[in-house]
Amino acid sequence: MNMGWIAFGLLAALGGAGVALFGKVGLQDLDPLRATLLRSVVMTLTIALVVWLRRTPSQPVGGRAWIFILLAGGSGALSWLAYFAGLRLAPVAQLAALDRASLLFIFLFGILFLGERYGWRGWVGISLVTAGMILLVTDRPLQSTPSRDAAVAGASALDGDGPEPLSAPRTGGPP
Which residue of 36, 57, 76, 121 has the fewest CB atoms within a 10 Å radius of its CB? Predict the structure, then answer.
């Protein structure tokens, strides 16, 4: 059995983490729709470069393949739009956890529409993933910082090099 899929899966997860973290910082002063458009352009250029470098022979794309490629593209676009809009509103880890509900949907839709079958390990695994997702989504961050810049400003304030962080309570005494 070819285990190369594990490396690709881990690379995809690492890339997904980059999307969440870089996207959260990049959306500081940018509209989510524009950010998604720019991300799409970068992705298109990157993928085109990889296809060109691989120099794979072109193959005709049949009608059924086009339908499902278009459906996958539309689903991906809706997902990106929702994800980038959510990044402006939620802590990045909580949004990413909720986004991973896609694993639950894939698991269930695979059973319903593709006829896939899973043993007890699959069911326990999807239950644990779902429970973990719920725990992360319902957790309240101990100290919420609206941005990386606020965290940096707060850290410098603790060193005495900047303004006092907004979340720190005043304790009497001189200002």
Answer: 57
Report the sign of the C-alpha dihedral through residues 144, 147, 152, 154, in that order.
Answer: negative
In order, the DSSP letters of 5-19 are: HHHHHHHHHHHHHHH
pTM: 0.70
Residue 145 confidence (pLDDT): 58
Alpha-carbon Rg of the chain, whole angstroms? 22
Query: Which alpha helices (H) appear in 4-147, and where do they start and end?
Result: 4-26, 32-54, 63-87, 92-99, 101-114, 120-138
Q: Dihedral sign, CA of 10, 15, 20, 24? A: positive
pLDDT at 173 over 60: no
Nearest one of 133, 132, 157 to 145, comparing CA atoms: 157
**97: closest CA among 62, 145, 131, 50?**
131
Token pair belonging to 106:
């894939």
